[in-house]
Amino acid sequence: MTKTQLKTLDDAPLAPKELIFGDSPYDVLRRMREKAPIARTDVGVTLALRNRHFELVTSDATRQIETETKLMQGITDGPIYDFTRLAMLFTNGETHIRRRLPVARTFAFKLMQAMRPRIRDIAEDLIGSKIGVGPVDFVSDIASQFPARIIAEILGIPDSDVPTFLNWIQDTASALGMIDPAQRDQIEASLNAFYDYVADLLDQRRKNPQEDFVTEYVRKTAEAGNLGEDEIRTQLLGLILAGSDTTRGSICMILSELLQHPQQWTDLTADPDGLKRAAVEEGMRYQPLVSGIPRIAMRDIEIDGYLVPKGAVIAISIISALRDPEIFSEPDRFNIHRADQQRWHFGFGAGAHRCVGEALARAEMEEMLATIARMAPNTKLIGDPPILMPAAIRQVGPMTVAFEA
Length: 405
Ligand code: HEM
Prior knowledge:
This protein has about 400 residues and is an alpha+beta fold. It has a single domain, classed as CATH 1.10.630.10. Helices cover about 50% and strands about 10% of the residues. The chain has 18 helices and twelve strands. It has helices at about 15-20, 25-35, 55, 70, 80-85, 95-105, 110-115, 115-130, 140-145, 145-155, 160-170, 185-205, 215-225, 230-260, 260-270, 270-285, 320, 360-375, and strands at about 40, 45-50, 60-65, 135, 290-295, 300-305, 305-310, 315, 380, 390, 395, 400. α8 (about 115-130) crosses α18 (about 360-375), α14 (about 230-260) runs parallel beside α18 (about 360-375) and α15 packs antiparallel against α16 (about 270-285). The mean pLDDT is about 95. It binds protoporphyrin IX containing FE (HEM). Protoporphyrin IX containing FE binds near residues 88 and 243.
């Protein structure tokens, strides 16, 4: 098709407001997919709705958004701006590779597999103390504590520091997205304290190397010799932030779906180690935490008969792509036994920025679910199931459970 024959973005249907503000986007997305393969929004972002669009939107025909969204909000300096300027997630090309490689090498799959027994111990410790005690606030007492304790252990942070560290994580995780102006001061204060902590940690490991992740990371970055100290600190901080919110919300949503599908929960309790991977795979498909990945078109792109012009912002809708009936049979059915999972789970993104913490996140989610299934097979959801609030990284609402052996 020549460019003049292509439809323009103005021809694409406008996404209804309920998609952005509603808490159950799936029906809206199904109706939108039935109308057209893409949709436009009133904030100027084009949404690609089909699973087959994933690779194109995350390919080198596009680039990652850098500091633009912070500048648009008037954030032009200070710790939030610096974090955005220096983190691997918000960069492109050579700079991105330079920042990502030492982390990717240290965070390798093998290292994370080796951590599994320790991850299981932490899960058992958290769940063991809650069995038979009545209603438990699953989000704050389990799902928030768990990734924080594991990342603290990986970084060699003593247990007594975890509550302070957890407060910083909660305050600063929002530095990744749009900033609520009322929270900016608090986010920046926590970000500064967190930066100091990480600087201290790096200092200690340089003086006194240990057998741990930070020592290995310090060694790898020194070998590469091409990262400034502020970049090194920011990658460590970014790892902690990128990993905490998503894993927390994902664990909640997967457990919640399993408990709402009692036969599938019973299947998991009968074979926790055999089915934990499938449960995570399906939970992340059915309720992905990251709703979409925005990019900027580097050239004119053709997508299913539409022209996305150079410079336009286009986002792959992960929540739509993972319910695409072209790939998944009965896409709106939660089914841990499905045979049509994709080889690379798009819940972790694709292309150059695909999640660097995937192996750790999988180990955490799988070991936590298997631990609950083993130690507390009669666990029940109390009250309404949790919902995910709409955002780029969706935030999980309240969730109460009773753990029963
Ligand atoms: C269920 C849990 C998780 C989900 C759903 C998730 C999802 C994602 C997605 C979709 C991306 C790509 C973003 C983009 O392309 O713009 C990403 C990137 C990233 N993730 Fe995760 N993530 C999870 C856990 C973790 C963990 C545990 C860590 C680290 C400890 C981590 C660290 C990162 C980092 C550093 C990046 C940026 C990679 C880059 O820019 O090259 N994530 N994640």
